[in-house]
Amino acid sequence: MVSLWTYWRGGAANQKFDSVGGAMSYASELTRRNPTAVLTGDGTDSGTLRVDLTWRIRSNSDFGRSQRRRMANWRHPLAVFRPAEIQAHSQGVANMDFDLACMYELADGSRGVVQTLGGLHGDFSEAPFIKLSGDDRFGTGSGEHLYINLDNKDQFKRLLIFVYIYDGAPTFDRADVVVTLATPDGKNVEIGCTDPPPQARSCAVALIEEEKGQLVARREVRYVYGFQSEIDRLYGWGLSWGRARK
After folding, report:
1. How many domains does the chain have?
2. Residue 154: count of CB within 10 angstroms of its CB
3. How distant, in Å, are the alpha carbons of 11, 85, 138 from that of 7?
4. pTM (2 decimals)?
5. What is the pLDDT along the chain (246 residues), one digit of tens a residue?
6. Structural domain of residue 43, as residue ranges?
């Protein structure tokens, strides 16, 4: 299967390889057919697991272009291997604000959330061993990042990575949103927020759980029309939610 997210980033293969400081790094995509990836193991039981959020806003012309592309691909099947064009942000949708967050449950039973709302940015050195950095309102290269301390990986029972729209119209269907899990050994696991329903405001992207001493990520990509509390009910986290501001 050819990765759509690889098209966005300028390639045409499902996996891509780069040399970083003499070491080999590569990217793969979690899909419905291949929904899981082991994040820890040999050489990755310590260090930092970085979670990145990036997005690309699609303009109105993109929708017409995608329809024309589907027709062209039907007539010319090899056209699917051409990289998609990257469009600049339009002024009308540039203010859309996607936010990256993580609900956590630790081995001692404590539960909580790391998010920009309410200033719950977490802590890398102490519980919950998760730190949020950045609040990117434009999907630029700086992005938003979660840093997960794998030196304390035995403390994690489950982590739910999710994305929500705090400010702006509920338009997941107007953007290509990608969450990337970057492991210490150079592996990048990409999860695209595909097929969003109209008016969805939040998306549970990936569930990371402890299995036989390892952390395993599973693709979720489940949308809700509300916010964090609705995702909480969907996964049974049991947190108390209230109104908050950035």
Report:
1. 1
2. 13
3. 5, 9, 20
4. 0.77
5. 344 455 554 443 444 444 344 445 568 999 999 999 999 987 678 899 999 998 887 766 554 444 444 444 444 444 433 333 333 333 344 556 789 999 999 999 999 999 988 889 999 999 999 999 865 444 444 468 999 999 999 999 999 999 998 766 667 888 889 999 999 988 999 999 999 998 899 999 999 999 988 999 999 999 999 889 999 999 999 998 876 565
6. 4-235
